[in-house]
Design goal:
homodimer; mainly alpha; two-stranded antiparallel ribbon; 2 strands; DNA-binding
Chain lengths: 172, 172
DNA sequence: GGAATATTACTCGGATACTTTCTGTCCGAGTCTACCAGG
DNA sequence: CCTGGTAGACTCGGACAGAAAGTATCCGAGTAATATTCC
């Protein structure tokens, strides 16, 4: 599984903690998790393409959740990054080789493919039943210190306009 | 997921249909499914390394199941080919960045990693509950024609010694 | 004819290239903000 | 003082290299059956 899945889930969690009118740029998100900003933005683009996040350009622009955190499941994020294709792809090799029968004889699905599909369905079911909102809900009680720290960082990131922030530039 | 998983599961199914004293070489197995023999043997080696199959060298050698088909689960085969590592690997990125806390504060597992692990456990549970014997049991009733065809091919492959097969060689 | 032996052919196993996917980086198009000039 | 225009800087988005894993192939070590030779 792609590493970007982990990054994207954490990003969605953080975006869910942001006030609804504010947003975070890819640089801010990358800074929060200490990730390669350029590569991370690639995954954020995928989230936007999937309708999970919205993006705004220009100053004060960035990403925000496109809908409520309760409506975004883990599965959606995973599929947005890794694609909707199932991990196991049946090549129908049972229809090949000297002992094969005419194609019309294979009406039942391959038992191997069916089993793998069932396992994958169970996996997807688990991921579909957990949302970003669940993540947020468990964050406060389980890690109050981290939550407070995050809120402070968010207030710093979204609150003050960067109008007069570099009064003391380091010009030679 | 690697394509070799599909190949290996089909190979185990075919090996389960073979009489206990006989065995099939990698060339025979590859011929049955019309696969690249050299690459396919690589996966069969992995199955042997995992203790799923036994191998014999020399003429009349080949692969056979190392134990009963009922004791070989799909999960074992998948892990033999793709490795036992979980698909999702938690990079603990929550511990990075400017809002991170000292490492000792992170005693609870990452909620994201826990969710992904839970989904993967469900997937593994499904695969652990299906064995090669189940495959064999469903093969006959569901596809009698294919089963008969397979048995014929196996009788041809394991039965006659290839002593005097090339009486008409194509020499010049 | 029977048995021991050398030969032969066939098997697996690991070491070696090639392709696709994933990872990582960069620059351009578009947009909002802030500043400046004019009325 | 207010308004319009302009310049600037910041954002996303897609196009461009590098690394890793998966895919495909080959040849060598070892073994069991076979054919030969001798008794």
């Amino acid at each position: 599984m792609s590493e970007g899945v982990e990054w994207s889930l954490h990003a969605c969690h953080l975006l869910a903690e942001v006030p609804p009118d504010a947003c975070l740029s890819s640089l801010q998100l990358a800074a929060f998790f200490d990730l390669a900003a350029a590569y991370f933005s690639k995954h954020l683009q995928a989230l936007t393409r999937a309708g999970i996040t919205n993006s705004s350009t220009g100053p004060q622009g960035g990403y925000r959740l496109a809908r409520s955190a309760a409506s975004i499941s883990f599965l959606e994020v995973v599929e947005a990054i890794d694609g909707p294709a199932p991990a196991f792809r049946c090549g129908e090799i049972r229809q090949r080789g000297p002992a094969a029968l005419p194609a019309r004889m294979y009406r039942n699905p391959c038992a191997i493919a069916a089993t793998m599909a069932g396992a994958e369905a169970a996996w997807r079911h688990e991921l579909a039943n957990v949302t970003i909102a669940d993540l947020v809900a468990s964050f406060g009680p389980k890690a109050p210190a981290a939550k407070a720290r995050t809120q402070d960082w968010l207030a710093e990131a979204t609150g003050p306009r960067p109008a007069a922030r570099n009064s003391t530039s380091l010009s030679t």
